[in-house]
Specification:
Layout: H1 8-22, H2 29-36, H3 40-46, H4 50-76
Helix pairs in contact: 1-2, 1-4, 2-3
């Protein structure tokens, strides 16, 4: 089966959605691969380990939260 080309950013967005819906503890490499429709090996091409995936997902969460906070602050200024 041919694998679709997927970017690290797309994987992170999918990981973010999984963590947002089910919590960070529910995030797994296999679950992310299944949700994205790719192989586990493809996930490991972008993230060397689950810890790296988890850390990047949490960083994305804070990036989203900061953007929301700043946009809210600008609208109240």
């Amino acid at each position: 089966m041919a694998q679709s080309i997927v970017s690290r950013e797309e994987l992170l967005e999918n990981a973010y959605r999984i963590a947002e819906k089910n919590g960070v503890s529910a995030l797994s490499v296999r679950g992310l691969a299944n949700a994205t429709g790719i192989s586990v090996g493809t996930v490991y091409r972008h993230f060397s380990a689950k810890d790296e995936l988890t850390t990047a997902t949490i960083q994305l969460y804070f990036k989203h939260a900061l953007a929301l906070l700043l946009s809210s602050k600008r609208s109240h200024a």
